[in-house]
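Quick one:
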Amino acid sequence: MKTFNTTAICIPQKHYMVDLSERVGEIKKLVDDGKYFTVNRARQYGKTTTLTALRSALSKEYDVVFIDFQSIGESGFSTEEKFVQEFCRLLWNRKELDAVDMDCIIDILKKWKDSDEPKARLGELFDTLMQWCKKSERYIVLIIDEVDTATSNQVFLDFLAQLRDKYISRDRDGIRTFQSVILAGVTDVKHLKSKIRDESDSKENSPWNIASDFTIDMSLSADGIKGMLDEYEADHHTGMNTEEMAELIRDYTTGYPFLVSRICELLDTEVGKKIENAHDRWTRDGIDEAVKLILSEDNTLFQSLTGKLNNLPELKASLRSILMEGTKLTWNPDQRDIVLMQMYGFVRNDNNSVRIDNRIFETRLYNLFLSEEEMKSSVFFREGDLAKNIFVENGKLNVRLILEHFIQTYQQIYGPLGEKFKEKDGREQFLLYLKPIINGTGNYYIEAQTRDQKRTDIIIDYLGQQYIIELKIWHGERYNESGEKQISEYLDYFGLNTGYMLSFNFNKNKEIGVQQVHVGDKLLYEATV
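Output:
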């Protein structure tokens, strides 16, 4: 029986996985056109799995050599000669694994890889590689995975320069070289110039400026996820609605491959410890449980993301500004922080605006930023934690009571709103109050389209129930009526009849507390601080 897989390569014969044939076909067109390009995506985005499938598809027409730069130790990049020796070792090892004819160069590969004192330089290596390309019956495709291993080394830049020179010679002089070269990793190799060369050098002279842009979407679509779930359903007969489940998983993950597979893996295994019946497990409730587990685990993906934030505090500040302050950033490919946030998987381009890539990342980041506030002994977190037991009745949250107690806490601490109050302060303080109440039982996320300086919608998932709370600063009665209409429409979208509003009101004559308001057939509890 197949399983879901979140470690290393997914294999169709062993694992439930999304059909990659369409994506592979798109990439093959680039290879057929003789393009050199980089597949740069965030960690655990399915790069190696996709390239493995690509190799299988290409091998029917091409000789494909698939090498991994992780197999080269740090010393292997210290000099040209050592790099050439290591590269020859990798080619030698791939000879039988990739079933590629290397007879015309095999003797020299053996000589160079076994040399006690490496002397061959990059120029000699490429002369040999070009002889191989010339004599080979089939065109050769070179795939190099995990190029991030090499990106801090000058010798790698020189290696790219050689590839570039042969690529240009192919069109200029008609020499036969690699049909296509594909580099895979997190780093966009086009940006390596600034990391290795002096800043005084022209960055436009990157040795990889001959590479074509790789714009193929590698996220998993709802249709693709459904196909994977259909296969699982055919084996296990859970009775799940695979289309609905696929849409829900896509909503949480935006198709991030690791997160899609991890949700399914947990539904198949760990969630079963709490929801034994498979039919009940493969539902929205089951997904909520799986997401809760993901948010609490220290997996390799989150370790990678946290490491980037620790090493690049400017990115952490930018993400905090987006989430906690509602800062709207226009997509700008020339802005270094935006480029890096996208490269590492934190954000995506959504209609020319910067958006956090998916709900799970967003909630994980909120938890990180709120935890930093907790470490400062936040009064709101402490008060929410102390009172949490009174807010749950028969397995349901009493959100009205939560709002009432939050207002009391706010008034006790701050009194009337001060002029320096900012919308982000209210959001942060309310989330700090809410977090210990739902922690371990429920999840929350912020609706990104409403996260700005005017309003914020918080969606809470708690034991199969959803609750929507709109946070906003009071801007007059007309604006408030508009907000009531908006949240009413939002409730329709979620199929709910009751919603909640929390307004931070500067008017001296305001009435502090919680009131009921009917908007059409919807009941709103409007809380005013």
